[in-house]
């Protein structure tokens, strides 16, 4: 019998990407499933804001895990959780936290290489490649058959007009290293230059995840560049809140 992990992994096809319309709770997961989703993925900013917290691991770990478990219980689809930096910089503690997420029923998670500011480092600091690989390898040992979508924030923390071939090369170096460490996917939020995106897709031996955003290249264009996964980050939650606020304003008028 095919496991949910195997089902989820098989959905990542370069050129025919898995579309993930990110959710934040059990109700939004059920709505996504009714709309035709093939898998469910959360967005950390959306989950945090829905619970009254800011992003960057301000949402308590136990609450993040409980929310993930409720989402898993509300849908028949595989669920991947945006787990930010894993709630630790230490490889073993990060792995232990991810193991708890796997025990809650998630089949995968995003793990970013930006050091969360709450861990006592300056904002926009990045994990060294070796350190991040140690975290990924520890997760692979602690949670086998768990889809680690290794996220690099190289493009997210810089402006689009500064994205260069050299930055793409640096991302490729990270992607290859993360693959060797045991990652299953490579997430490049903020990269919207199709030429550079195609270069990353061709060079990194992992399915590449593109994050859609208002004004970004179309799904068709990024699929042609070779991406295998398209997610939508915080934007579905933002749209839902805008619709709610507009309806509330009309009701109160």
SSE order and pairing:
Layout: H1 4-10, E1 18-20, H2 26-34, E2 40-41, H3 44-50, H4 61-74, E3 79-82, H5 91-103, E4 108-112, H6 129-142, E5 147-151, H7 165-181, E6 185-187, H8 194-203, E7 208-211, H9 219-224, E8 229-231, H10 235-252
Parallel strand pairs: 1-8, 2-3, 3-4, 4-5, 5-6, 6-7, 7-8
C-alpha end-to-end distance: 55 Å
Uncertain segments of ≥5 residues (pLDDT<50)? none
Biggest sheet layout: 8 strands, parallel
Give the percentage of residues in beta strands. Answer: 5-15%
Distinct helical segment count: 10
Q: What is the H/E order? A: HEHEHHEHEHEHEHEHEH
Shape: globular
- How confident overall, as mean pLDDT? 96
The strand line-up of the biggest sheet is 1-8-7-6-5-4-3-2
- Secondary structure class reads alpha/beta
- How much helix, percentage-wise, in residues? 40-55%
- CA radius of gyration is 17 Å
**β-strand number:** 8
